Amino acid sequence: MEYNLKYDDNGVRKALQIALAQSNRAFCFNKAKAIRNVRVDYTPAQLEKVRQRLSGKSNAQLRAELEQKNSEVMRIYRHFYPADRGFSHSDEYQDALAHVFLERGILVGSGDAADELYVDDGQ
Fold first, then answer.
1. 70-107 per-position pLDDT tens digit
2. From 13-17, 18-22, 64-68, 84-88, the region with the lowest mean pLDDT
3. Residue 77 in 3-state DSSP?
């Protein structure tokens, strides 16, 4: 958003080049739309709660659980109703979960259609 890049392969490559050129990985945004896109909506308490819930799990366990629909990790931000009648979703806890994954060196993404976290292995 900051650089008006398209959401296509070329835009993604250019965004990655820009990000990797920032040796300290600190990013400054000037456009209001870009700033809104990266704002933090979860509280410090929510972040700490997620850190605590994941503290006993290895990175391999976290990666595996992110791929399972009703895992403990997924239940941090989703509550699935019985008889496959849908789920409720918390954007704040999803973002806090992504924060903790990134702290632990696990790159995650969020699907557009399903709005579900996934492990991004750069593929």
1. 788 888 888 766 666 666 778 899 999 999 998 998 88
2. 84-88
3. coil
Q: What is the pLDDT of residues 73-83, one digit of tens each?
A: 888 888 766 66
d(CA 33, CA 88): 27
What's the gap between Cα 64 and its chain centre? 15
Residue 81 DSSP one-character state: P
Tokens of 104: 């632990």
Sorted by where each begins, the domain ranges of the chain are 1-39, 40-123
CA distance 54 to 47: 11
Q: From residue 51, how far is each of 62, 103, 117 by CA, in Å?
A: 12, 10, 16
Sign (positive/negative) of CA torsion 51, 52, 56, 61? negative
- Write the burial class of residue 110 (CB in 10 Å: 0-12 exposed, 13-18 middle, 19+ buried): middle
